[in-house]
Design goal:
By secondary structure, the protein is an alpha/beta fold. Helices cover 38% and strands 15% of the residues. Strand 11, helix 13 and strand 12 form a beta-alpha-beta unit. It is globular. The two termini are 13 Å apart.
Length: 402
């Protein structure tokens, strides 16, 4: 039986108030409904709300992060580095695995039930909460919590794109743009150039912008945007052996350039950045070895191939699912091409709407039942991987106790 104690990070239980928040925004929760049609979202609503609140996001230093892959890791690494250097730090991430509290961190700890409940009561009493989207509301609450808690700095991850994202109401000290690739094409555009323009929307006038190696089309957009806004583009080359190590090096070099002031600081940064980020090739059982990876686009699948090929197991079972707006067949093609005969691919059925099912899955993707998955997971000699969406972990936790 699979009964080993989990080695994954402990995630907070949902606060009692979370159901009320989610129910309140059920008609304007675009993360769930995916209703991104023109006119469905107006960024001016949140902008006006924040202005009426005195723009709490201006009361502390902010770092703004966009990108297709690696932005969550970069946000976490930068936050942890700032904490190690003595800054009281807020972190805003999205989406979440189990609880809304994972989205708003204070010194790398999820906020308490009480803080979330208080922030929601204040927002709901403002009178315009019904006009906000769910992500608007979470962003507004995070900004105000950071102001109330008097953080020195907040590291803010975009939710989707950049130019029209709810988080794009900042006067950031500098911007960070991680690897850009194809994702959310129905919203952001069908080409790398179009998507890069959306991501580049977070760049402010006369600021420093950090990025990594990019495809030529994306790099050209960043260069043109920085030139037009008289901003400095800094390209950081990382030489790590896989995407996790490259993300660490990327964040460390930014911290060293912006905040670090000596060997002692650098040693502290190396130590804290060595800690894993949950959801990035996270081992959730050690025997048999079961991994959860939250990658949910083609770029992330290529990164997953890279790290799986460095693992000791000679074969692997990959269970995946993703939202129907994404190209699951392309995910399978990337994994099959990169891993060859060592990998077997399976649909991981989801208990929530909006994901691929047995009926609309790619024809060559097997669709085992939960009992058949449990039997497959008994193979000690194989590496077992669940991937394709952050929501996959919630299903693993409920249905498999992982």
């Amino acid at each position: 039986m699979i009964n080993q104690r989990p080695v994954s990070a402990t995630l907070p239980k949902p606060a009692p108030i979370e159901k009320e928040i989610l129910d309140f925004f059920s008609g304007r929760n675009f993360e769930r409904s995916r209703r991104f049609a023109p006119g469905a979202y107006d960024p001016a609503v949140l902008r006006d709300h924040l202005a009426a609140k005195g723009n709490p996001q201006y009361r502390y230093k902010t770092i703004h992060i966009a990108g297709t892959v690696g932005k969550g890791s970069a946000t976490t690494y930068l936050s942890r580095g700032l904490i190690a250097l003595g800054y009281k730090t807020g972190t805003y991430l999205s989406p979440h695995f189990i609880s809304l509290k994972e989205r708003v961190l204070l010194n790398d700890e999820p906020i308490s039930d009480e803080l979330l409940t208080t922030a929601w009561a204040k927002l709901r009493n403002d009178g315009d909460a019904g006009a906000l989207s769910f992500f608007d509301a979470m962003t507004a609450m995070a900004f105000e919590i950071f102001a109330d808690q008097k953080v020195d700095c907040a590291v803010i991850e975009t939710g989707l794109g950049g130019k029209s994202d709810s988080t794009n109401n900042l006067q950031s000290a500098f911007s960070v743009i991680t690897r850009i690739g194809l994702d959310h094409q129905q919203i952001l555009g069908n080409t790398i150039t179009e998507i890069a323009r959306e991501k580049a929307g977070i760049i402010r006038n006369a600021q420093r912008v950090y990025t990594c190696a990019q495809q030529p089309e994306a790099l050209q957009v960043l260069q043109e945007t920085c030139a037009a806004r008289q901003s400095e583009l800094v390209i950081i080359a990382s030489e790590g052996e896989d995407f996790t190590e490259r993300n660490r090096q990327f964040a460390q070099q930014i911290l060293q350039r912006e905040f670090s002031s000596g060997d002692d600081h650098d040693a502290r940064l190396r130590q804290v950045l060595a800690q894993p980020v949950f959801g990035r090739f996270s081992v959730v059982r050690t025997h048999p070895r079961i991994v959860f990876d939250s990658g949910h686009n083609t770029v992330a699948m290529r990164a997953l191939v890279e790290i799986v090929n460095r693992q000791p197991e000679s074969r692997c079972n990959i269970f995946l699912n993703t939202m129907v707006e994404r190209d699951l067949a392309q995910f399978c093609s990337v994994l099959a091409a990169g891993l060859g005969a060592k990998a077997r691919l399976f649909l991981f059925p989801m208990g929530v709407a909006g994901y691929f099912t047995t009926e609309n899955r790619p024809q060559n993707l097997a669709a085992p039942t939960d009992d058949e998955i449990r039997a497959l997971l008994e193979a000690d000699e194989a590496l077992h991987i669940f991937t394709g969406s952050m929501a996959v972990y919630g299903e693993l936790r409920v249905r498999f106790g992982l």
